[in-house]
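Recall that a protein's primary structure is simply its ordered list of amino acids. Everything else, from secondary elements to tertiary packing, is in principle encoded there. The following example makes that idea concrete.
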Amino acid sequence: MFEKIKDFFYDISDIFVSLLIIALIFISVSWKISDTLSIDIDAPITSEIDQEQVNDPPVIIVTPEKPEDPEDPVEETPEDPDIVAEPVTPVDLKTFTVSEGSTGYSIGQKLQSEGYVDDVNSFVKRLIEMGYDSKLRAGDFKISTSDDLDTIIKVLAGQRR
């Protein structure tokens, strides 16, 4: 009889020790997770911005050029057959290549180095002002060194001259 009571206490003590170990593991894991993921609700919200980030130019990603639906060309005839349109002087168009993934700033640097624009920052600023910062396309474009900044931006965005 004493043997059965002794076995009962040994079994109970094994179960109790196992439950105690499981509880300690649960408490320590919970404590570590809550400490790692803790959020201080009463802390003021601050924005930490490096001075370098403030001076960096905005990043503008160029997406691949999407093929547009060709429009039917409309032939215009002059109303008065005696009036002849003046010939358009040909503009010296050169091919400017924008590689896929180029930023607006890197495109501006390339435009400046090839003589199309005077200042990279004015190009990027005007690009953002016009709302074309997310519309630049990759590919080959025909532009001239005599084109104004707005025309260059529109051509690089895939619009026609």
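The radius of gyration is 35 Å. Residues 35 and 41 are 14 Å apart (CA to CA).
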